Automatic annotation (TrEMBL):
PROSITE patterns: BULB_LECTIN. Residues 357-475 form the Bulb-type lectin domain. It comes from the Eukaryota. Keywords: Signal. This is Bulb-type lectin domain-containing protein. InterPro entries: Bulb-type_lectin_dom (IPR001480), Bulb-type_lectin_dom_sf (IPR036426), Pectin_lyase_fold/virulence (IPR011050). It comes from Neurospora hispaniola. Residues 1-22 form the signal peptide. The lineage of its organism: Eukaryota, Fungi, Dikarya, Ascomycota, Pezizomycotina.
Length: 475
């Protein structure tokens, strides 16, 4: 069983409070000791004891302690220490723990740091070991110095409570099968800019697509401001950007998760052999309309329609039925009548067009074969094939000519390339055809700035002190 944290794309160090589903009382072991009592499945009390700690070393030092100590070994790192690694720290037996002495929650937490020159992608591996714990440390992938390498995740661990994950660009938590895993009380927040693909993903058919007994509950997934999360929780083999022919299966519970801020789609389900209990999830804090922070222009028709209606909870009934059992789905879900895969299709919205745009001398040259001179909000300027330059209001999709140069030429050439509109290096704004200048602003030697506007006087050339030297109305 494993949960794969797609942390390779993260520029930040992480603080994972716990990666254990059930935490036994550990025995004294190499590198320090602690007492941990798990009173319930979801509650943990840690009582630190002072002892020796590891103040220097590499992954080899830690791995040797785990290998020699066996089950329930605790390797306690000294506060503030940085352990450079060129290969993963590997848990070798059940109940082992890697932590900072005293369990601090501030910047004194020890750091595991991937070194430049190494191609390692996983800093810590706990695959297939039960009840292993990473407590109160920071794990830094060191992308700016070590570079980016595709491969396994920064931490590969068993199931449990992770605490806080901020700034992922792929998925916050990605579950690859992992029957019996519990993903509880995590806070997943997008970065301050750009988009994050997913919050918690159950989309891959790894390990034959078996998700039996997985519980995803009481997590908070927040997008923005200044960014967004495309898909809060994705469930099924037909949801992600690369739909799989296999179908995921298993009785899974997804309850009481909270979605807030800029989240494109909170939960989407398609490609599951039934057995889903999805209840009590809250989307009341999600930003509406969705178009205020994202664009669905690259999505299919079904996704675009759901996005336009700001639908947050979506499933395809025919895509979540089968042998795993009946479904219990909260009433707020929208049932799709048409199959649709790839819900990872939202993009950043195009920035709003300006009301004006200016050019310095020798920075504008457009011929009639290109046509478009400038695009403004609900307005554009173009050079026509006959040499006429026009300003067109496009409000509401209705084109209305607001001004025109009304100077025409038959010498633009068959493709219009001989008619050229340019703001020259000398500050003169000129329309040329195949025979020479067709008209000019006459501001050579004095024109410093050419400005197009969606309001009168439409086009101006100004001088060094900002004084108006010429407008399109002077033609």
């Amino acid at each position: 069983m494993k949960i794969l944290f797609h942390a390779l794309a993260l520029p930040l160090a992480f603080h994972f409070l716990s990666l254990a589903h059930a935490i036994p009382s550990p025995e004294a072991a190499h590198g320090g000791s602690a007492q941990a009592t798990n009173t319930t499945d979801d509650a943990m009390t840690i009582t630190p004891r002072q002892s020796s700690c590891l103040s220097t070393g590499t992954q080899s030092t830690i791995n040797a302690l785990f290998s020699s100590g066996g089950a329930n070994t605790i390797v306690s790192l000294c506060p503030g220490v940085t352990i450079p690694i060129t290969a993963p720290v590997v848990f070798t037996a059940p109940g082992q723990e890697l932590s900072t002495q005293g369990y601090p929650t501030d910047s004194s937490r020890a750091t595991i740091l991937i070194q430049p020159g190494s191609t390692v992608t996983s800093a810590i591996r706990g695959n297939w070991q039960n009840n292993v714990k990473v407590l109160n440390i920071q794990v830094d992938g060191n992308q700016p110095n070590a570079g980016y390498f595709g491969g396994d995740a920064l931490l590969e661990m068993a199931c449990g409570r992770m605490g806080s994950i901020t700034g992922a660009t792929d998925g916050g938590i990605v579950i690859f099968g992992s029957p019996g895993s519990h993903i509880l009380r995590n806070t997943i927040t997008s970065s301050s800019s750009g988009l994050q693909f997913g919050g918690i993903n159950m989309v891959d058919p790894t390990w034959s697509g078996n998700y039996s007994g997985v519980v995803v509950s009481s997590n908070t997934i927040t997008g923005g401001p200044g960014s967004f999360i495309n898909l809060g929780i994705g469930m099924g083999s037909q949801v992600w950007s690369n739909p799989h022919p296999e179908t995921n299966f298993g009785q899974v519970t997804v309850t009481n998760n909270v979605f807030t801020g800029n989240v494109g789609f909170s939960i989407v389900m398609n490609g599951w052999l039934g057995g889903l209990t999805v209840t009590g999830n809250s989307v009341s804090g999600v930003t509406t309309p969705s178009s205020s922070f994202a664009s669905a222009s690259g999505c299919g028709a079904v996704q675009q329609a759901a996005f336009a209606d700001s639908e947050q909870l979506v499933y395809y009934p025919a895509g979540v039925t089968g042998s795993s059992g009946p479904n219990v789905i909260q009433s707020q879900f929208t049932a799709l009548s048409t199959n649709a895969s790839n819900w990872l299709c939202l993009t950043n919205p195009a920035p709003p067009l300006p009301d004006t745009k200016s050019f310095l001398p020798n920075t504008l040259s457009v011929d009639a074969s290109t046509s478009r001179v400038v695009s403004l909000r609900d307005f554009h300027v173009q050079v026509q094939g006959d040499g006429n330059v026009v300003g067109i209001d496009t409000t509401g999709g209705v084109w209305t000519v607001k001004w025109a140069s009304s100077r025409f030429s038959s010498a633009c050439g068959p493709d219009g390339s001989q008619c050229l509109l340019a703001f020259g290096i000398d500050g003169n704004f000129v329309m040329y055809d195949g025979n020479g200048p067709l008209w000019a602003s006459g501001t050579d030697g004095s024109g410093q700035l050419l400005t197009f506007s969606r309001e009168p006087p439409w086009v101006t050339v100004t001088g060094s002190n900002g004084q108006t030297l010429w407008t399109i109305g002077n033609l």
